[in-house]
Amino acid sequence: MTDALNPAALDQLFRNARTYNAFSGEIGDETLRQLYDLMKLGPTEANSTPARLVFVKSAEAKAKLGPALSEGNYAKTMAAPVTVIVGYDMRFHDKLPYLFPHVDAKSWFEGSPEERMYRVALRSSSLQGAYLIMAARALGLDTGPMSGFDNAKVDEAFFAGTTVKSNFLINLGHGDPASVYPRSPRLPFDEAARIE
């Protein structure tokens, strides 16, 4: 793994990739499985992999999601071929004997304050959501990540009776170029980073 990606791949993943506000097309279940199989390989704290995903695709699932969306996100989310709810499991450590078997990592978290559990679950599930965005781009899909929804309503509709809570949403499909805003500026290296 010493060769850099070619410029076309970097364009697809970063330079030309955008956040879309309108989508078309269909996404098959096999593509969603491929997407997950790529995403799951990204690193997380102690391989905790706390993200739990719901691929909202059917009309019934969209109807459950709709009431939780902000006004500005409703139409584009209802029209997107798939919306991914990226959640996190507050009991992620129950899986650590399988996911991180070479030490007793579960004991690191058993009895921990909920605030610590939340930080680990939120941080690593956010990483996994970012990996999902990159995996989608690698598979030729466009994305529209967003907040702008009522987490409590999503949790009640999709995660009631579980230890999973929603983090953010990602619309997936083939993006309409007319739906993107001009690219906003990014901070230059010297304002955002330093080398010591």
TrEMBL record:
Its EC number is 1.-.-.-. Keywords: Flavoprotein, FMN, NAD, NADP, Oxidoreductase. InterPro entries: Nitroreductase, Nitroreductase-like, Nitroreductase_HadB/RutE, RutE-like. It is an enzyme of class 1 (oxidoreductase). Its cofactor is FMN. GO terms for molecular function: oxidoreductase activity. SUPFAM superfamilies: FMN-dependent nitroreductase-like (SSF55469). The keyword DNA repair does not apply. It holds the Pfam family Nitroreductase. The keyword NADP applies. Residues 27-158 form the Nitroreductase domain. Belongs to the nitroreductase family. HadB/RutE subfamily. This is Putative NADH dehydrogenase/NAD(P)H nitroreductase J5837_02420. It comes from Pseudoxanthomonas helianthi. The lineage of its organism: Bacteria, Pseudomonadati, Pseudomonadota, Gammaproteobacteria, Lysobacterales.
